[in-house]
């Protein structure tokens, strides 16, 4: 049994390779629910740093917190200092502490089939991750107690999933797979050839900082303009407002015509009525971001 771990910008997901099956690991939350991810967020409490679901709970109680800190890996080296409330630590130390908490969650609060020891792990990284980002990721996992078998580019992981799903057909032919991977903080595009269990990455392109977090920021800017509230007024509760936008974004379906935001985190500055955005207007504001990803995709076509 081995683990496949995607340390995502907004969510960390773990899958298990177990006798030809690849289920996603479920984690118990403080509320007693079981979910298929751990939030990639950290918070400072009186008892020290907490991470994942515990950090989300602490943030709701007003604790200083930092979400989507993985983006910092693409901007800085492992010694870059990060401050969360009164806690000051290096980026390497933050990644290690988060992954140590993830290891604890896997052994104590997950449905992992065998929770006596951590299995070997394969870890995915963005295809355009620079060497310092790869080193920080690998070393943080090692320091946290994981035995990392390999680092795999995220487009390769997508191609391997494709190969597993269509393995009967691929035994007889070679396929070209075009991967479009828009995550919480980064975008990857790749052209991969797959035949049976073998794959080769022909070409990759990526955007280091473009993802769902930017989509949330666009929605918040539209909502603040609609409410007549300045960004300066919103800054003290920016994380809470962005979380509301993230939830509203993820609730959008094919037939969603309007997005309703309460903006209650603004307190006395909150609007008297909910802000209503047209989904079509929101999509139009996202058009430049999507076109940017398509330009990257065209490089590998």
List keywords for this structure.
about 300 residues; alpha+beta; five-stranded mixed β-sheet; three-stranded antiparallel β-sheet; 10 helices; about 30% strand
Query: Outline, from the CA principal axes?
Result: globular
As residue ranges, the low-confidence spans are: none
- List the secondary-structure elements in sequence, H or E: EEEEEEEHEHEEHEHEHHEEEHHHEEH
Strand order of the largest sheet: 5-2-1-11-12
Quickly give the structural class. Answer: alpha+beta
Radius of gyration: 20 Å
Count all strands and give the number.
17
How many angstroms does the end-to-end distance come to? 36 Å
Describe the main β-sheet briefly: 5 strands, mixed
Mean pLDDT: 90
* Count of alpha/pi helices: 10
Note the beta-strand portion: 25-35%
Proportion of residues in helical segments: 25-40%
